[in-house]
Amino acid sequence: MPAARLAAGVAEPSARGIADHVARLIRQGTLRDGTRLPTVRATASALHVGATTVATAWTLLRHERLVRSDGRNGTFVHDLSLPSTDRADVHDLPMRIDLASSAYDVDLVPDPGPHLAAAAERLAWQHSETSDVDDDLAQVALGSWPFVPDGLAVAWGYADALAQLAALVVHPGDRVLVEEACSPETSAVLSAVRAQVLHVPCDSAGMVPEALEEALASRPVMVVLQPRMADPLAHHMTEARAQALASVLAEREVLVVEEDSAAGLATGPAASVGRWVPEQTVLVRGYQRSHGPTVRMALVGGAAAVVERLRSRQNITGSFPPKMAQRTLALMLGDPVVQALVAQARWRYARRWHTLARALRRHGLSVPGVDGLALWVRVPDAHATVRRLAHAGIRARIGTDVAGPTAGSRHLRLATAGLRSDHMSVAWLVAGATPPARRRA
Predict the structure, then answer these.
(1) How confident is the model at residue 336 (pLDDT cuts 50, 70, 90)?
(2) What is the pLDDT of residues 209-260, one digit of tens each?
(3) Which letter does DSSP use for residue 431 in this model?
(4) Are 47 and 172 in contact (CB under 8 A)?
(5) C-alpha angle 178-375-80 in degrees, rounded to nearest 5
(6) Nearest Cα residue to 57 out of 111, 19, 13, 28
(7) Which of 373, 335, 370, 361 is nearest to 430 (CA)?
(8) At 67, is the pLDDT very low, low, confident or very high (cuts 50, 70, 90)?
(9) What is the pLDDT of residue 90?
(10) FRET label pair with 141: which of 157, 274, 318, 394, CA 20 to 30 Å apart?
(11) Which residues are 76's β-sheet partners?
(12) From CA 70, how far away is CA 68, in angstroms rounded?
């Protein structure tokens, strides 16, 4: 498919937006197995985005097992997203539950339409677009930031923000520290920039300070933390842990990036190492998971030296959301009706996570964490478990994409946001037991 034709259907020019669009084309059959995707540079030119954004999108698709890379020959559609001992039968398996991707409950997503119209009425169309953050959005953000940020920017979601930050400080082969299991977006971005990723042991409060101190001996250029709603470990960093980590990180030549991708859905307050080491810390707060897939934005706040370099880069590349989108998000964040719907989503998503976690633990399975949108489940045979789930119409994924090879091959990452029911049946299947027969209505 030519790059221009592919670009014509992309709704949002973020890494996640591009990947979602290509994934739809693959699953609809528009892009068939063996089709060569346009080059990263050609696609970036057609979309008017940076090459890193497209490279990250291609990496996300590889992690979702929808494409394969053949080196200099290019990237090709190769859909292996459904595991099976017989590849010919893979696409004949009906999928009724998706635990592999971060889904949304459409009933819990606010409608941006009224706020988009209101933003259009208030916006002066003669103004020129720059990387400046909308004043209303900045005011809302600063009121809830866990520390006082010296600089503020906006990006097309967390993955896009991390890709732009990585472009500033990470070179191929540089070491980056992440949690023992990091989010799919973090893994995809760091893979796209060819960083050497080192996984640091964690507990229910996040990275273990002693383990972080030992890992810092490798002289990394970046550390990526998840203060709350950690995907998939579901830990929640406490103030005491944030202070302990900050004391280890103090005066080190390393950039700390905090991923707060589900801030609106978190049931607890945010702790941040930026409270103690603000000159080294940048917090990325995403709104897509709480306010819906059309609101693909993230605020980036923290160390002025880094944020100002990021904004200078954005002014050159144009890779920032326009004022219309920013003002729309600001209006949504200040709307009591939207706030009520997000609060409802917060507790429903929390209930889904806890219900499945309890069911799995009753079967003797290890499930760490306290709250999140994904579960990290240790199983005896991950490949067999994924195949068993697939034949029951449930899509799941082994944890090798987000963790080291040893830990990853022993775990499943199960996204829970879209799991409205069937918690008990899923738990039975993951545990390898025979699920009870469904009662007829």
Answers:
(1) very high
(2) 999 999 999 999 999 999 999 999 999 999 999 999 999 999 899 999 999 9
(3) H
(4) no
(5) 85
(6) 19
(7) 361
(8) confident
(9) 41
(10) 318
(11) 36, 68
(12) 7
Q: Using an 8 Å Cβ cutoff, are 67 and 382 in contact? A: no
- Bridge partners, residue 281, by sequence: 256
Angle between helices 15-28 and 157-169 (to 10 degrees): 120
- Sorting pLDDT into bands at 50, 70 and 90, what band is 87? very low
Q: How far apart are the first and last CA of the chain?
A: 48
d(CA 162, CA 255): 12
* Dihedral angle over CA of 324, 327, 329, 335, nearest 10: -140
Per-residue pLDDT tens digits for 341-388: 999 999 999 999 999 999 999 999 999 999 999 999 999 999 899 989
Distance CA 320, CA 333 (A): 19
pTM (two decimals): 0.82
Taking the C-alpha atoms of residue 257 and residue 176, their distance in angstroms, rounded to an integer, is: 11
Tell me how far CA of residue 55 lies from CA of 39, 105, 160, 357, in angstroms. Answer: 9, 29, 11, 34
Residue 88 banded pLDDT, cuts 50, 70, 90 = very low
Interatomic CA distance for residues 144 and 130, integer angstroms: 24
Element containing residue 258 per DSSP (H, E): strand 255-260
What residue type is 310 in one-letter code? L
Any bridge partners for residue 366, and if so which?
Answer: 378
Identity of the amino acid at 79: D
- Are 157 and 288 in contact by the 8 Å Cβ rule? The answer is yes
Q: Are 84 and 93 in contact (CB under 8 A)?
A: yes
Identity of the amino acid at 193:
V
Torsion angle, alpha carbons of 228, 229, 232, 236, to 10: 40
Scan for tokens 């946001």, then name that residue: 417
Residue 132, by phi and psi: left (phi above 0), alpha (psi -120 to 50) or beta?
Answer: beta
